[in-house]
Amino acid sequence: MTLDIVSYGRRGPGGSLRFGSGEIAQIQRTVGRTPEVLVKVSGGGRDTGGVEAHLRYISRHGKVPLETDEGPAMQGRGAPREIVTDWQLDLCSSQYRPKPVPGQKDIRAKLAHNIVLSMPPGTPPEKVLAAARVFARENFALQYRYAMVLHTDQPHPHVHLVVKCEHEFEPGKRLYIRKETLRQWREQFAALMREQGVAANATPRQVRGQIRKPLKDAIHHRLRALRAFGQLPPDERAGRQPPKTSSFMRAKLGAVLRALQTRRDTLDAGRDEMQRTWQEVAADWQSTADTLRRQGQAELAERVERFVGRMPAVQTDEQRMAERWKDAERNRAQERTDAKSPGAPAR
Prior knowledge:
Layout: E1 10-11, E2 17-18, H1 21-31, E3 38-43, H2 48-58, E4 66-68, E5 73-74, H3 79-86, E6 112-118, H4 125-140, E7 146-151, E8 158-164, H5 179-195, H6 217-230, H7 234-238, H8 247-262, H9 271-294, H10 298-309, H11 317-340
Antiparallel strand pairs: 1-2, 3-6, 4-5, 4-7, 6-8, 7-8
């Protein structure tokens, strides 16, 4: 499979597979659970208004300076408009195609990619920004215009990077971001963070035993807003409008509750495929351990096997939600029992 860890090694003179120092360091970081970098594409504007709106958002409407590929930072409410004008986005013809009607997918070409470079909580923000500057310069300087801003308002420091899609000097050439591109960018950003003295790793989530696909950004934002609202003091919550719930998660929970009520086995959808992936990953890791032993790396081979032993068991979203619901029901039942017991405080 494509996640074959051993395939990253090299064949020795006798035909046996061997890991070089770089592969061994990668294995050590992974089994040691070194913090993972995050590099993702969060969207992109398809017309000048969309690009300008995103620049306004990441600059907090002019309160946070925007760094550009030309060096000087730009700040103020007019900075996003200046950048859009300087990039000559109005000359990009694709934005003038008809917009889709509501409910239809927008197939117009992007004018800019919105990229996020992020590190786990506790990472020095200034080092994240320093690595992001080098990352942008190495990948886009003198080819694609870009602007960036550092955000520290959340536990994980992250940089928003906006990159113009059309090449600056070669007409018709565009920046395309594929899965392989993102993999290379993650590895590059992790290496740049290590150059800053910060432990960082970049491995596919499946290799780490995380078989479940992550939720989309919009769902994460909605759930985070709901959690933050729930943590407010009761009197403060009473004076605020609660955030909207995620329609996707609401529908998913409804399906789980119906399955629990009807006792139909509908919580295992997709589990077989997830289990196969888990088994393939475990087999790859075992092959890695065997190769390490042949190279005299017995201690690291044992660490690999312990890592596999601690990989979480496969569980679908529906199974996890059902367990949490059952736990909540048990807690509510216990609270009702305690309230009825003799000597319980009056309410």
